[in-house]
Amino acid sequence: MIYRRVLLSLLPFSLMGADWPGFLGQDGLARSGAIKLVDREKLEPNILWKVSVPGKGWSSPVVVGNRIFLTTAIPSGAAGAAKPDQSLEVLCLDAASGKMVWQTKALTQNGETAPNIHSKNSHASPTIVVKGERLFAHFGHMGTVCLDLDGKILWTTPGLYSKPVHGGGGSPILVDDLLIFSADGIDLQAVIALNQADGKLAWKTERNASPSRPFSFTTPTLVTRNGRRMLLSPGSDVLMALDPLTGKELWRVPFKGYSVIPRPAIHGDLAIISTSYDNASVLAVNITGSGVQDEKAIAWKLTKGAPHTPSPLVVDDMLFLVSDKGIASCLDPQMGKIHWQERIGGNFSSSPWFEATAEGQSEPGTIWLQSEEGEVTRIAAQKTFKKLGKFDLKDRALASHAVSDGNLFIRTEGQLLKLGSK
Predict the structure, then answer these.
(1) Is 348 helix (H, G, I), strand (E, B) or coil?
(2) What's the helix, strand, coil split of the chain in %, to 5?
(3) What is the CATH number of domain 207-306?
């Protein structure tokens, strides 16, 4: 227990601070300080406010300062149209009250020509990322928009591919002066970087794989090892490592899988990825190689309880997973040894996140899980299974959570909620 508390105390201050500026929070690590629930024993959440969100979108909320940002798609045009146009919009809400601060139309999608999307997807699924006085909203093949924090559009870059499958999904990340995202449709499979200043193309690196089903929906992860920065980007049948500033390929590891969704997690010299469909496996891939790697780069593999959609979560010397069918797991991330696997019920798309122990408390931290059916489950972040509690939002929920200043923000199909004590 002391060992874990020491590790947490050594985390960069930004990880324990207020902002949650992109998908899975600061640096995509999906961790925060303790949140403020009224009754932790009974797990009765104090809902500070609950507001309706116009349209439909499965992008996760992000929180910067006292503002919440998210995207949505609002049907427009003729009432009752089978495929209405979609107004792709960026919303800003006040974190204290939930009131709408501004609402900006970013793009318009023609309903008649819009590709079909999956029943679990939306036209606004990638999560916003914020840096300084700018926010970046990505809408997959429709394009990318940069706005200031008052909702003024600064630049728009049209989509760089035109044939997505099931809609968009992967979120962008920021590296130095670049905005980087994956683009994996039928007509293009690549990793793309835009200049943050003007939205112009900085580099594009094609995957050069030949999967039978080339579409995927991943979010890149940035990692530094031995003084070398690497952008890790899985796609169908391949995990690529790129130089984030130039797009030059550093190494690749082939695998079999498509419609890859989870964001890679890192533990030591291993990247934890999922091969997604058809038969999901979790792979631990060594990230210190070069060139085209073979199976020797894969340290271990897990098939039972592997997620298709939720991202893996590393906490200290533990790896936490939740499968789409509701099997939660804790493993040794270096060896792949299973500490426990338990069925917790429900179906899952959102990614788990870790809540650190409150100051002065000796209990382990908490893993939070959000089911598609609306149930929120808390389990202890330890090597023996302990369920801490569950509550039901009574609304469909596929977006991942956001945490800021000790409060929890949850997006459901029609609402945004703030839970906490202030």
Answers:
(1) coil
(2) 5, 45, 50
(3) 2.40.128.630
